[in-house]
Design brief:
Blueprint lengths: L1 H22 L2 E13 L2 E8 L2 E8 L11 E7 L10 E7 L12 E9 L2
Antiparallel strand pairs: 1-2, 1-4, 2-3, 3-6, 4-5, 5-6
Length: 116
């Protein structure tokens, strides 16, 4: 009987912990300033909160897209989520707006690199 109670607790708590991580995602407005393709890697130059960054993805990976210059919404995924082993982010159209990016169509998934 104790095994059943422990299993019940684990199965009940795991979704709550996972949901808390997903809700802790940070959403930011970004501006794509340029894009390039280099040896199969898509590189987007972006500005977030006045600071320059790059988004990178493997051209052959699903969810990798070259974005045109303009404004978008970016969601930083929790650690160990997503396809890349870095600060993994998803980008959505700016119009995802008040309903939140989770309601909009994901345009791409990238590795966020801070410019130095």
């Amino acid at each position: 009987m104790k095994k059943a109670a422990v299993l019940f607790l684990v199965l009940t708590l795991f979704p709550l912990v996972t949901a808390a991580q997903v809700l802790a995602q940070e959403t930011s407005s970004i501006t794509v300033k340029g894009n390039q393709l280099s040896n199969g890697v898509v590189v987007l130059d972006i500005v977030k909160s006045g600071k320059a960054y790059q988004l990178q993805c493997n051209q052959s990976a699903p969810g990798c897209a070259v974005l045109n210059n303009g404004n978008y919404q970016m969601v930083e995924l929790p650690k160990n989520f997503g396809m890349y082993e870095c600060r993994d982010v998803e980008v959505f159209a700016e119009s995802a707006g008040p309903t939140g990016p989770e309601k909009g169509k994901r345009l791409g998934e990238y590795c966020l690199q801070e410019n130095k």
